[in-house]
Amino acid sequence: MEIIALILIKTQLYLLVALSFSVIYHPTKNFHLAHAALITSSAYFVFFFANKFSIPFLVSVALAIVTTTLIGGVCEVLVYRQMRKRNVPAFASLIASIGLYVVLQNCISLFFGDDTKIINTAEITVGNQIFGAYITTVQIITVFVSITLFIAVNLFLHFTTTGKSIRAVASNPELCSIYGISSNKIILIAFGIGSALAATAGILSAMDTNMTPTFGFNLLLYGVVAMIIGGVGSTRGLTAGAFLVATAQNLAAYYIDTKWMDAVTYIILILFLIWKPLGFSGKQLKKVEV
Amino acid sequence: MEYILHLFILICFYTLLSQSLNLSAGFTGLISLAHAGFYGIGAYTTAILSTQFGFSFWLNIPLAMLISGAIAFIVSLIALRTVEDYFIICTLGIQVILFSIMNNWMDLTRGPLGIPGIPSISLFGLHFDSKISFLLLSVFFAAIVWFVLRNISKSGFGKTLTAISEDEIYTQSIGKNVYKSKIISFTITAILAAIPGALYAHYISYIDPTSFTVNESIFILSIVIIGGLGNLTGSFLAAAFLVLLPEALRFVGMPDSIAANMRQIIYGLILVIVMMTGRNGVKELFAKKHTNF
Asked: B223 touching A, CB under 8 A?
């Protein structure tokens, strides 16, 4: 029972990360790995506001999300937008995002140190027993927040003009500019939404366990793996991908050893790339078609 | 003096690493984040062979190259089914798996404890335990690898690789086997990465998995990109620059704790700027690919 609960909680967390990443990936088609630093920084901002300035917890969460969203926007405006303008090859933006990640992550290390930090929440977390499994309050919040945000983002993408514009830019940027949709503006909005979601995921994850300046990178990579094996641009695919990653990790932790979790995740990714390179949904992965 | 020699030896190691990566990343256009993994395979093969079986360095080096090459060959068969960004993510996955094996397979690698007591190199009673002699040995290997890579890049095969990085479909259409060339290029890269691995193991005499992390891979890739893709001299200069950078920061009076982070911030920024402006031949090498539908 314990393991099923854990799988479901991790699925929700990875789903949130995968969603935040794919909201950005979908219209821009670049692997924004600096996203990992945003996940980390939001958690550190909460720590900074709540513990250093003793601002009320919920206010500091809101402040952290806003700050992180701004950082995400700045990355887009200062780096990615300039790169799109110059029409650099696809891999260049990935390398640049790695560079950005290195810069941001080391800034976090410089200001907060490399040691493990814990966000002090006001209440002491006591395990709630649900169907024979012990679940902390934070984990319940994670599940609810993640499901709510997932539904909200999907409704937003499908039923609002801005959301539809994001999907339009994703499917054909040139046609969009003909119809007078400013792709730069839309992509900036996508970066904002993605960064805010990443910030939420980072805070939830850091509240559940604890944090080091590099915890975002692993979390993001699980999300990316979930996105790739789920197939890009498919809601059901994302959920299935996140579920598969979480299940594989927890089963590996349960039956083999927790230390092999990362390796198992990537072995799944590689197996998928061999036998089902298009992911669950079968959407096209390759960028250049003949 | 000893410390300066140590820095020169490090420059040799990173020159070897970045130039070998340049073969696949620069000439072929296969940006790989698994290079530190193959470097680690070289180091671990050497460490295990010399501490458990008492093999000498001159036997370890070919064996390390063989094992690293064999693993790279198998891995490339899988990884090269993907393209561009997905290839980079795939190599990142390979790097994490290789690190995970080094860190967790206790029976073979002793995990985080590392392998101590790797003997220093000797040849016909000549011992390479002083810094200066080891530096000469490293320079010797760096020169050989540089020479080999230079000849590969100038050969017909090298031209094929450059053609692949510029336009894969066109290269295929003139009858070149793109998949095979990519596999060969990736495998040679890994084989050459085992050389600095073996040297490192004998030089430091103790290895543990923290030397072969994702960050190390990113660092080696940064050297290649800062030096210029497909530019061997550039890789050497960038390696020298990035190895000496923390010393320069220390020289201007920055404390050690900050200097380590500052170095990474500086090379991260350089990486972003180089990629944004598309300098160092990056643009010329890759611009064609996207206009050619």
From this structure: no
Of B100, B275, B287, the CB nearest to A262: B100
Q: Which domain CATH number covers B107?
A: 1.10.3470
Q: What is the dihedral of CA B254, B257, B263, B269, to 10 degrees?
A: -100
Structural domain harbouring A48:
2-116+126-214
Q: How many domains does chain A have?
A: 1
How far apart are alpha carbons B230 and A96 in whole angstroms?
18
The predicted-structure confidence for A77-112, as pLDDT tens digits, reads as follows 888 888 888 777 777 888 888 889 999 988 888 888
- A236 domain residue, yes or no: no
Is A249 part of a structural domain of the chain? Answer: no
Whether residues B272 and A99 touch (CB distance < 8 A) is answered with yes
Chain centroid to CA B211: 12
Q: What is the pTM of this model?
A: 0.86
Per-residue pLDDT of B49-85, as tens digits, reads: 888 887 777 888 888 889 999 999 988 888 887 777 7
Burial (CB count <10 Å: 0-12, 13-18, 19+), residue B244: middle
Give ipTM to 2 decimals.
Answer: 0.83
| CA pair distance B106, A114, nearest whole angstrom | 26
Residue numbers in B near A31 (CB within 8 A):
85, 88-89
Q: Count interface pairs A-B at CB distance under 8 A.
A: 142
Strand partners, A130: A133
Structural element, H or E, at residue B122: strand B122-123
